[in-house]
Structure formats: C-alpha cells, structure tokens
Amino acid sequence: MGDFVRLADVAGPPTELLFGDWYPALRASELRVGKMTTATLLGIPVLLGRRSDGRVFAMRDLCPHRGIPLSAGWFDGETVQCKYHGWRFEPCGGQCVEIPSLTAEQREGLDPTKIYAAAFPCEERDGYAWVYVPAAGAGRVVSNLPVVPELPKFSARYKSAHLVAELPCNVDHGIIGLMDPAHGPFVHQAWWWRSKASIHEKTKHFEPLEDRENNGRNAGFRMSAHAPSGNSAPYKLLGVYGEPITTTIDFVLPNRRLETIRCGAKWFSSLTTITPVTASTCRIDVVAAWNVFYWVPFVTSIATFFGARFVRQDQETMIEQAQGLRSNPSLMLIDDADKPAKWYFALKQARLKGTGEHPLSGPVVLRWRS
C-alpha cells in the first residue's frame, strides 16, 4: 500500500458492524436468579437474566405485541412477563407461553406458543455472559454457531481478574488502538511498566490465521512466538524462574486479542475484546489468568489495581482522541507499525463482502520502534 494511506480509503464506513458472532454483554456475576438487567450490543437493546436452573439468557428488550421494553415487566425465574398486557415468554427461546387477555374460545384460533419474542444464544464463559448477535434476517433459530470464545488455561491452579472500560469511539478506532504496537512508551509510561527512554527497534514475525470453513468469520493474524521485550517491567519478573520466555499474540475477527506468555510451567494469558455498544461507542473487556506468583497474598487485587491503571491510560487517550475526531480530520496509516490496522480493515471488508480473501499470503516480518 505504500508508505502511508488515508484511513478512509481502507476503513470503509465507520458504522459498519460485524454481526453473526459472539460478544461479551456483561459480567455474569451481575445476573441473579429472578432479576433482569439490560445491555446494548451493536445498537440493540438486550435483556439478560438467569433462570432458576442457573442458565443465562438474552432477549431483545422489546415485546413483539406493542413494543414496550420487556425490562419494564417482571421475571419470576422461569418466564418474562410484559408489563403492558401481561404476555409471558420463555426467555431462552423467546416462545410466548401465555396471553392473559385471550378467552378460551379465542385460544382455539390463536395459539400463543406460535408467537416469539426475539431471543439470542447466550453462554457463560470466563465470568462473562456471551451473546451471539445474528445478522438481520438470520431467522429465529441460528444453526452452526461458532465456538464461544474462551481464555486458555494451562494448569489446574491459577488466579484470574477482569477489567472493563467504556470508550467514546467507534469499534474500528477501539480495535486498531488495541493492536497498535507503537503507543506503549508514550501512553503507558509508568515506573512499573516502561519509560519513554526505553523505546528501541523491534522485529516481529506475523502469520495469517485463516478460517475458510466459516468464510473468514474467525480469520485473523498471529504475532508468532517470540521473546518478549525487555523494556517492560512485568516481563522482567518472569526472569526469576530462569526459563526461556515466549509470547504469542493472536488477533481474531471480529474483535479479539489473545496473548499467551509461557515460561516453562509458568504462564499468563489474556483475552481482550472491543465490543461495539452503538455505532459510535464501544467497550473494552479484559479477562486474564495466570499461575505466576498465584500463591502471593492479595496477588489478584494487586494485578487488578495495576491492570486497571493500564487500561485507564488507554481509555483517557481514546477520550482525548475523540475530541479531535469530532472535527472529522483526514487520518492516515503508515508502514510498518500500522500494518496490523491495515490487515484488520482488509479482513473486515472481506468478511462483509463474503469474499474470504486474506490480506496476508504468508509469513511477514514487520519492524518498528517502541
């Protein structure tokens, strides 16, 4: 693509969203039996809850009768009842089980069980309620669902933590910020992480991750296994084990960054997602697990404290960027540090167009300073 390109030439319309995939709606700990809560995914109002049998569910927060939000009604642990006319729905499939206003004679002509409110597949993984958001016109029952994302763990004993932050930008800016390799020494300056003076040249190898069976649904790319940078303090802590340290980073459509660090029997893994809330806002969620120093008292609280500060630095930067983006400036992407962003946009457009084409024909070497 040359030394630089205009962002608008590769990104496509900023409001294009990738439907037909799993997105984390909220922390599963927020779902209580008999209680309802709401979230917004890809601009869709979603009602979530937990049935008496422990199963989580997700519905469009809309009664198909008169359009009132179902969240205005009641949930008894088994069915969701609309506040307006008392229609009652089984939440996992959306099937209507009762219309109180029908007389016995009217029930012979109108079977409530043939009416459905919109319900989405919903599964609990790694402390999140993941919701499958189908494409428009996909029908009530979606078959051949992709596997629900899950953080890999490499031992039976480990600690874990979760982080979340709202971002005032569209999902594209959130994602290319997520995979940006050059902002670390500037955005994440801290005594416990790195300094601006630590910047140096890096060489990384990348390879394509293809998904031909699903028409590129889970396509992406991998930063191949490598020794992590020595200018980040947390990586230096692993040096006490005296084993070689390797890091692998995957980016997978539509929005997932998976990092795995191995040091002999010790490991750390994190799954970061950027979820579109609306066409102009998104949310970053991080779940991490590790067996490094898991025996240290308060290690989870300590990790969460510093992790939250790290994510807050990204959040503050995106808030400041949003101020500049209000004037609709012409933006650019350069080589090599912005190549992952170019690949993301190419993969996204390929999926939207259904071509399945991958921007990487094979392994690629990129160089930048960070």
TrEMBL record:
<feature type="transmembrane region" description="Helical">
    <location>
        <begin position="292"/>
        <end position="311"/>
    </location>
</feature>
<keyword id="KW-0812">Transmembrane</keyword>
<keyword id="KW-0001">2Fe-2S</keyword>
<dbReference type="GO" id="GO:0051537">
    <property type="term" value="F:2 iron, 2 sulfur cluster binding"/>
</dbReference>
<keyword id="KW-0560">Oxidoreductase</keyword>
<dbReference type="GO" id="GO:0046872">
    <property type="term" value="F:metal ion binding"/>
</dbReference>
<feature type="domain" description="Rieske">
    <location>
        <begin position="22"/>
        <end position="131"/>
    </location>
</feature>
<dbReference type="InterPro" id="IPR050584">
    <property type="entry name" value="Cholesterol_7-desaturase"/>
</dbReference>
<dbReference type="Pfam" id="PF00355">
    <property type="entry name" value="Rieske"/>
</dbReference>
<keyword id="KW-0408">Iron</keyword>
<keyword id="KW-0479">Metal-binding</keyword>
<protein>
    <submittedName>
        <fullName>Phenylpropionate dioxygenase-like ring-hydroxylating dioxygenase large terminal subunit</fullName>
    </submittedName>
</protein>
<keyword id="KW-0472">Membrane</keyword>
<dbReference type="InterPro" id="IPR036922">
    <property type="entry name" value="Rieske_2Fe-2S_sf"/>
</dbReference>
<dbReference type="GO" id="GO:0051213">
    <property type="term" value="F:dioxygenase activity"/>
</dbReference>
<dbReference type="InterPro" id="IPR017941">
    <property type="entry name" value="Rieske_2Fe-2S"/>
</dbReference>
<keyword id="KW-1133">Transmembrane helix</keyword>
<keyword id="KW-0411">Iron-sulfur</keyword>
<keyword id="KW-0223">Dioxygenase</keyword>
